[in-house]
Amino acid sequence: MKGNILLIGASGDIGAAIAKKLIHEGYQLMLHYHSNQAPVQELLQSDHQHAILAAYQADLAKEEEVKAFIRAIPFSVDAVVFASGQAYHGLFQDMKEEEMDDLLQVHVKSPWLITHHFLPEMILRQRGNILFVTSVWGEYGASNEVVYSSVKGAQNVFVKALAKEVALSNIRVNAVSPGFIDTKMNHHLSLEEANAFLDDVPANRAGRPEEVANLIHYLLGEESSYIQGEIIHINGGL
Around 107, how many Cα atoms within 13 Å sit in the side-chain half-sphere? Predict the structure, then answer.
């Protein structure tokens, strides 16, 4: 096996695609999910290589659950992949403070806590990999997704800053920034809205979760060992 990967958000479309790709490529996985257990059960049932070490349920919006979750992991962690997602669609002025707090916790503080927990062991071993799946909105911003854009922008800057701090310890920190990917997160869009978005994509199609997974796999491997602190776009030329 190539290493132990902690995959945060394994039940989403992109997370499940990442899990399948990494299992196929010989990694061992620890899977995290929130409430959608079915995709994780499907991964467990199809895991004929016995590559999945464990699966953990935790709500990343609740700090105590996050702390209990990371304390419960008995395995060494060679890499952490953050692929979890939670968005709010609507006017900023209509958001409740609790909704803002949830997005901040899920996308910013919980990843901080998880990274903070596993980073010392990586530094001790002088190797490790931390990867985020962020969003095109973290760079450009989107109306009706103001707070989501803000927290994804925070992830991007966290990646760039931490990469500088841990590079001498042979720990890589990077992010993949998808544009319009065919996932359930975009199914709230009407056909007209989706087509209008795709009109701005030179490739004239939505991306596939498997394409994001392929890029994550590349960034975990030694072929990408000199890539550090990058936000790599995968958006069809948007």
Answer: 25
First to last CA, the chain: 37
Active-site residue 56, yes or no? no
Q: Sign of torsion, CA 192 210 103 98?
A: positive
pTM for this model (two decimals): 0.92
pLDDT digits (tens, 9 = 90+) for 1-34: 689 999 999 999 999 999 999 999 999 999 999 9
Question: Is 170 within 8 Å of 127 (Cβ atoms)?
Answer: yes
Structural domains in the chain, CATH included, are 4-234 (3.40.50.720)
Considering 27, 148, 218, 226, which one is annotated as catalytic?
Answer: 148
CA 211 to chain centre: 14
| Interval 96-125: pLDDT, tens | 999 999 999 999 999 999 999 999 999 999
Instruction: State the residue for tokens 């949830």.
Output: 102
Residue 35 · residue 12 · CB < 8 Å:
no
Residue 153: what residue type?
G
Q: Give the other-Cβ count within 10 Å of 175's Cβ.
A: 25
